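Class, carefully examine what follows:
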Amino acid sequence: MTHLSDFLELLKSHSSRPCIESDGGMYTYANLLDEIDRWQGRFSWLDVRSGAVVGIRADHSLSSIAALIALLLRQSVAALLPRDCHCEKYVADCHATALLDLRPDGGYNWQPIAIETTHPLLERIRAGNEGGIVLF
């Protein structure tokens, strides 16, 4: 968590500089930090806990990058799922407890998933109180 906190402090020191170009717009590091805060609030409201695995289907956007960072700050696990395919197998393989489907405009759909299985690597991440990323 300390490295991620250091990273965010570095972003703050460059807040007025451009960092992401997407959806026909240019966004600064300040925009990204604001969006991370918004996702932190959403994840609190959605009760995303440390160690939870959230499947994310998204394109490259300010909102998707912010959601990923916000999950890592919560010490959760972000599973990056392919955008244009059926995701049931991926959701099962990563033991996701929810699916976050992000639209390019920043809107999203949230789908909780009842799951009763886990994986030894996820248990190691949880035991170490760290976030993680699952790549497919």
About this structure: The first strand starts at residue 18 and ends at 22.
